[in-house]
Amino acid sequence: MREMAKGMNVGLSSLSPHVGSVLVGLSWVSPTGDGDADVSVLLLDANGKVRGDSDFYFYNNPAAADGSVQLLGKTPTENGDEDRISFDLTAVPPGIDRIVVAASRYGGRNFGELADVEVTLADGTGERLLRFAVEDADTVSAIIFGELYRRGGEWKFRAVGQGYDSGLAGLATDFGVDIEDDADEAEGAEGARAEDGEETPQDEPDTARTGQTGQTAADVHSSANAGGNVAGIGVRTMNRTGTGTGNGNGTGNETGGGAAQAGAPAPGTTPGPVPAPRASGDNVTPPARATRPRTAKKKVTLPRADRKALAENESWRPSRLVPVPTLKSDRDREVRATSVLLSVMAQVPEFGRRLTAAFGAPAGRMETYTEVVLPHGEAPRRPDGVIRVERAGKLWTALVETKTNGSALKPDQVQAYMDIAARRGYEAVITVSNDVALEGSPLVDVKIDGRRKHRVALRHLSWAEVTYQAQLLIRHEGVGDKAHAWLLQELLHYLQHENSGCHGFQNMGAAWVPVRNGINDETLCEGDPRALDVVESWERLVRQLCLGLGGELGQKVLPVHRSKRGADPAARRSRLADRLCREGLLQAEFRIDGAPGILALNADLRTGKLRTSIEIPPPEGGYPLSRAKRLLRRLAEAPADLHVETLLEGGAGGPRGTLERLRPEPADMLPKGDNPIAGFRLSLFKSMGNSRGNAESGFIRSVDDAVHRFYTAVVVHLDQP
Length: 721
Hints:
The chain is of the alpha+beta class. The protein is built from 14 helices and 29 strands. The longest helix has 25 residues, at 529-553.
């Protein structure tokens, strides 16, 4: 992998022959665990300006219709998380000269608060080609990480690292995008809005925007994180000559003399998620606040609660598109799971694209096949499935190997499919199983023949991740068709049925019982390889917990790693294994969008206890006793055995007790003396399961129950940040 310095450029074709599509990753590490930033992409013409609204991609406009750009969102990594962007360079319009990749922070934060700020670029096979670390982020709130540009018929990458003190507004304005930024007008409009949670009336068009409130993109994002009550983002683009004007009637006149009503698309264009310029004048009525960002096209989501059934009694079961109870053998489960998954991927484009975009697949027509016979030496091979995507006459092909019910992937099978794919010019081999892959530690080791010019990417999907993506679409983000939503619902029912065998990571491994016994007997020594096996299993479980909770909430849930700069994943796991041997502790932290703090999880193998906790700041305003009473009122529905500990400035701990004891005596939460209160730590304790698996008495089930109980019984009642 090539290390880039600021200002350097390199031709992509000199690094890899597979650069028709590339994957750009932006990453950073937050020492406090709560750092975040928004990614944006701008397509620029030869004049260095965007051509129109459709050339600006951000969190409310994540994908190009032609598949050239797609913001894939955050992916957990060893040291935090990484925002990934997929580029199909063969689909970039000819009029585009440069592609700028940037990120911005919001809420008054800057990149100087983050560490390991960097950008990486990988080719279509997934191999990382280059890395550029931004060393001088300092106090800037927006950064251009790099840019892709055309030179002599090929694409090149330039390491830019340019910062903006003025945030997203200053960055975007340089490229012809106008972010409306009148804070005073925003405050005035805020007072005239409807109450939080009031939906936009049904007879109003879905294209209602907040462009008239004068909020910046950062303000809108902050509001969305706090309560989700945002109708859109106030963004407009200037025309090439910089004469974007508006009149009191909400019309915008371009230099060509044409006029278009604000909010309506020009003839022959498709309305995008970027609103028209705000109208001027004092008589503009601010739009009502919506509970979720609105898009130009209404999407379909299924209700959480099922309608009242017409069955005579509860023993009646509705018919299903894909029946599950008849499955008996592992082979039956494997064949049916593959067929169900691939068929839904082909029939629901949003779902199929979501699963394959990170693997380098283009946006195009997808077809899927099962039980395909392919020649391989004397004995033909029969992969579980094949995915083919056609775009502009070119085919992208991936072989699929699935396992269910805890069955492990077989290295010889995967190796054979890698060889077949390389020989036939296929792009990827995708493995699907209940196991969760760790970064830097592949599930299956395969040998790559360096003499072959064509390279094949090996990628893994956990069934838990498939479930997570289906939940996001049908419960939170929506799809474009009711039939597609129903198909996803049937897939989700299938995956979650006890007979499907597609339940995700369910076994802590053979080393779990010996390690627990060694900790109890104090015979486990540092350097024992079995402790490292348990740490890796714990990390897989943590990643699965993030997927499960994130799918239910519709929020980003990411593991937090408070690692030092440049920490190696293997070295970090080794340190955690040594700590497990010394102290008998397994620890994890989760960052949940909208939560007032970091959720911590500790498993103490010596005491057999699980502890879930969160540290929150004290309620603002009033005397200390008033703050304590307000907190207890917020926790009125929390379990009586919730432990509350007062945190004092300087890191010292103060009084502590259970809610049952503190509710009648809130003053017991106050420290003696004048030491100021810095916050509160809320904790729940639970006995952990004994077995290594996911049975009712198993460790994995107990951890999952502890995290979900703590979030639903405690965290949801706390004030939003």
